[in-house]
Amino acid sequence: MVFNPNFSTLMKIRPNHQTLFLLLFFFSAVMISCGGTEKRPHYQADISGIKIEPVSIGRYEEVLFNLNPYALKDEIEPYIDRYYVFLGENIRTEQGRQQLFDYISDPQIRELYLDTKEVWPDVTFLEKELSEAFRYYHHHFPGEAIPRVFTYISGLDFQYPVKDYEDIIVIGLDMYLGKDYHLYPKVGVPSYQTFGMQPAFVSIDVMKLLGERKLQEMAAMPERFLDYMIYEGKILYFLDCMLPQHPDTLKMTYDQGQLKWLEANMGRAWSYFLENEMLYSSDRQIIIKFLGDAPFTAPFSRNAPPRTAAYIGWQIVRKYMERNQVKGLAGLFKENDAQKILNQSGFRP
After folding, report:
1. How far apart are CA 201 and CA 124, in angstroms?
2. What is the arithmetic mean of pLDDT over 144-168?
3. Cβ–Cβ contacts within 10 Å for residue 204, how many?
4. Which pTM does this prediction carry?
5. What is the pLDDT of residues 238-276, one digit of tens each?
6. 3-state SS track over the chain
7. Between 308-323 and 338-345, two packed helices, what is the crossing angle to 10 degrees?
8. Whole-number Å distance between alpha carbons of 144 and 192
9. C-alpha distances out from residue 314 to 5, 220, 279, Å
């Protein structure tokens, strides 16, 4: 749509309150008709008044691999305080410095560092994403400290690509080098997991870790199938609140085809759970089968994505919170009655 007002005519209009109101109404109508405004989803808070220190990521690997390994005692000293979470007091001992020397001299570790440097020449976009996410976090949990963030070379620790130590989060950037990175299969990373090892998933994994820690502080651990569904749904809803602009595919670690399958078959999956009386089961095998990570959900089909019950739990929590926004995210986390959340959600797939 092209809009070309005659501004000379507009400037001759007397600027009384009625005129200003009409002009504002007119421009608003034009913006809406042109698609210029969009209703925020219910989980996206207004953080315009939230101010925090922007995230500045400490790149431990950049410091470490630019040191002279044969002069570690002197060269590491200026960095001990800043990177204490990695170095500790042990770095001031001969044994500690020898361990660090062995690490930075290891050919595979150095290869990982060089490959990481290629994919991650800087972390500017990650700092921006996390700064925004932590503003949402501060909105929902104003008394909580904003964690400091560091990156490092983990040595392909695919079980724990992101770790937290109280108010510190460390990210193994070598676990986000792309789904086709050649060393992942060699260390036993299952092929279905490498999809989540792309740079776009770092912020998701950081905030998911933060959400899991917060939920475990505030809620009882799940016991039954339905409890686990709602538990996982709460964490995914936490991601909604922290990263509202991120697509559902990233939050679920799905590709577009997997998400479409679930959207089309959610009703059938839910009926399967009901007909087989699974909601109140404490059978660990059933829970793992429908909530655990896997290449697909075997009881449905090879086309069915994994964690189908987590996705449905997420939709239940979304519906529940749409009806109970006054509770807020903290209120949701404190609500331990999964049945109550289901009943009050009005969920009908």
Report:
1. 15
2. 95
3. 21
4. 0.88
5. 999 999 999 999 999 999 999 999 999 999 999 999 999
6. CCCCCCHHHHHHCCCCHHHHHHHHHHHHHHHHHCCCCCCCCCCCCCCCCCCCCCCCCEEHHHHHCCCCHHHHHHHCHHHCCCCHHHHCHHHHCHHHHHHHHHHHHCHHHHHHHHHHHHHCCCCHHHHHHHHHHHHHHHHHCCCCCCCEEEEECCCCCCCCCEEEECCEEEEEHHHCCCCCCCCCHHHCCCHHHHHHCCHHHHHHHHHHHHHHHHHHHHCCCCCCHHHHHHHHHHHHHHHHHHCCCCCHHHHHCCCHHHHHHHHHHHHHHHHHHHHCCCCCCCCHHHHHHHHCCCCCCCCCCCCCCCCHHHHHHHHHHHHHHHHCHHHHHHHHHHCCCHHHHHHHHCCCC
7. 70
8. 35
9. 46, 18, 15
Return the axis-axis angle of helices 225-242 and 202-218, rounded to nearest 10°.
130
Interhelix angle 107-119/94-105, nearest 10 degrees: 60
CA distances from 307 to 160, 194, 295, 348 (A): 19, 16, 10, 19
- For 25, other C-beta atoms within 10 Å of its C-beta total 10
pLDDT score, position 234? 98
Tokens representing 138? 């501060």
Q: What is the CA radius of gyration of the chain?
A: 25
Give strand pairing partners of 2: none
The order of strands in the sheet holding 148-152 is: 58-59, 148-152, 168-172, 162-165
Q: Which amino acid is at 36?
A: G
The encoded tokens of residue 75 equal 């060269």
